[in-house]
Amino acid sequence: MTGADMVLEALEREGVEYIFGYPGGANLPLYQHLPEHPKLKHILVRHEQGAAHMADGYARACGKPGVVFATSGPGALNLVTGLCTAYMDSVPMIAITGQVNSTQVGRDAFQESDVIGATSSVTKHSYLVTKIDQLPRVIHEAFHIATTGRPGPVLIDICKDVQQAEAERVTPEYLELPGYRLNGHVNLDQAREAARALAGAERPVILAGHGVLLSRAESELMALAEAAAAPVGTTLLGIGAFPVKHPLSLHMTGFMGTGWCLKAVQNADVLMMVGMRVDDRVTAKLSEFAPNVKTFIHVDIDEAEMGKNVRSHIELVADARLALEAMLPHIGKVDAGRAEWLGQIDRWREEHPLRYRQSNGRLQPQDVLIDMYRRAKSEAIVVADVGQNQIWAALWWNYDRPGLFINSGGSGTMGFALPAALGAKFGRPDLPVWCVAGEGGFVMTAQELSVAVEHQLDVKIVLLNNFSLGMVRQFQDDFYGGVRSQVDLTHMPDFVKLCEAYGLPALRVEKFEDIAPSFDAAERTKGPFLIDFRIDPEANVYPIVPLGKGLNEFREAPEYA
If one looks up domain 188-351 in CATH, what number appears? Predict the structure, then answer.
């Protein structure tokens, strides 16, 4: 077999269905033999960054690792942003890049780059393959590493001569991973201690992150919350881990979280954080985060997260689902004052509801999203980009059961939504997929509209167009003296005509009464459809915590403050 055939056969053996990629000189042997492997469906993207985001969206939607191909040099380096996005959000991905011949490595050959060095900080592990007999083992190990423990991207850089070399077929029978240790158990003493602390609290709060979704622990989280009568907030990446309409739901936490959630966190006496990094977007000013907490409980599969930002009193290094299962039998009788605490949260919910300006004659983004979510019926995948559109989509998420809300959290990657939504549709063709983006992020990867049209992917694109870098503009207005610098995006394409050029239907909407008819038209259309909503250019995200301040100092919309 050639090395290229070994790679492709190994991918088949790992159950790979889709490869998102772009050919070039250093990976042409892979593409030469690809037609001989019809089980592998290759999606030709229009930019390698789009390939990485498609693989990312695919993995988040269906749970299987996304696979991406790129050539050497600029092709491989174009993956870096997508790899970082997946790495920060713990998404399993396999990136296979071509490299120059092994005899030329380090000699500045044409389209050579140190891909391992360039990606080492944004991958879980990396391989440089210089000998053909390494290939089957490396690919087997890579899938294991990417999908076990805390998931993440793994990069395999394969020299071109290795792809072309020939050798006998080798099927790996075991893993050679010295130093790679998985924590396969839950410390029952710590689980019991955590459960008793939660049940004995006067003012408990549970915060759930992406790890809950990755471990499919939504039902265990609900069972524990109900048994402990403990309210639950989610991080931006944890949205969907707990139903928003549940009486114990606090909705989203963090510096753009709901007012009642921030009040609850800041007044809690026991705070349990599950499957989350406890990063700065959650804590805001760290020294003022949850000042009344007597017991911090941290549950995470990655031991490196323990104590990194918040020093916990009880640490459970374990898969979220297993940890919550272990805690549940030990909840016992909850504190008698729990009803008073939940009543206080209800009062905060009434005092600080989600609301927005509705009567200034301009189209408001919330009006658009409320109608979109009404049609989603708690079943559709919603993929958001980054910026104001992302936070609006998160805050107005209204699913009454765990659902799929996909966005770039840790990396905050503009341009993520469109390719990720297409990848999600490949992964879950049975579900409706909505893509929510701002015009700034959309144009960064708009070339992937070609993929949507080529494969007639039934993805509905909701463009919240305010002709500016909205989040940057809001920060400049609120925190940088009102100096609006380099945020004007007036000179944008006519998106309806752009879509026409790509070959997909689109509409422009500027009035409230046209929202529903435009969505009706989109839903009647099989295949991709874009709606350019011209929203209020002064619409802002609220609540928001001023930069450098604590969660107690969150601001609401000026007209409601």
Answer: 3.40.50.1220
